C-alpha cells in the first residue's frame, strides 16, 4: 500500500507506460486495451453513473494493471 502512495512509484509507472505505448514489441491491440477505456471514461464519465470512481483514479488503476501485465509479458523493467 505504501508503494502505491509513492510519487516515485507513479513516476516510474507512467515512464513505463510511455515505453510500452511507443514500443514496437507490444502489439497494437494490447495498447488499445489501455488507451480506449481510459479515453472513453475521460470523455463520458456521466454515462457511467454507477461507477463512482474519479477520472484520475480510474486512469491510475488501469495504468497500474496495464504496466504490470505488459512489463511482465514483454520483460521490460521499470526505471
Cα(first) to Cα(last) distance is: 20 Å
Percent range for β-strand residues: under 5%
For the biggest sheet, the summary is: none
> Any idea what the radius of gyration is?
13 Å
Describe this structure in words.
There is one protein chain. This protein has 79 residues and is mainly alpha-helical. It has one domain (3-74). 66% of the residues lie in helices and 0% in strands. It has helices at 7-22, 28-43, 55-74. Helix 1 (7-22) packs across helix 3 and helix 2 (28-43) runs antiparallel to helix 3. The longest helix is centred in the C-terminal third of the chain and has 20 residues, at 55-74. The protein is flat, with a radius of gyration of 13 Å. The relative contact order is 0.19. The model has no long low-confidence stretch (mean pLDDT 85).
Key terms:
79 residues, mainly alpha, 66% helix
Quick structural summary:
Helix content is 66%, strand content 0%. It has helices at 7-22, 28-43, 55-74.
Please render the helix and strand layout as text.
Layout: H1 7-22, H2 28-43, H3 55-74
Helix pairs in contact: 1-3, 2-3
Amino acid at each position: 500500500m505504501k508503494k502505491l502512495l509513492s510519487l516515485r512509484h507513479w513516476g516510474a509507472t507512467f515512464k513505463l507506460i510511455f515505453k510500452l505505448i511507443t514500443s514496437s514489441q507490444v502489439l497494437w491491440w494490447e495498447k488499445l486495451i489501455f488507451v480506449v477505456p481510459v479515453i472513453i471514461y475521460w470523455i463520458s464519465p456521466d454515462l457511467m453513473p454507477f461507477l463512482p470512481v474519479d477520472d484520475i483514479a480510474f486512469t491510475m488503476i488501469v495504468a497500474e494493471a496495464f504496466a504490470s501485465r505488459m512489463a511482465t509479458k514483454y520483460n521490460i523493467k521499470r526505471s
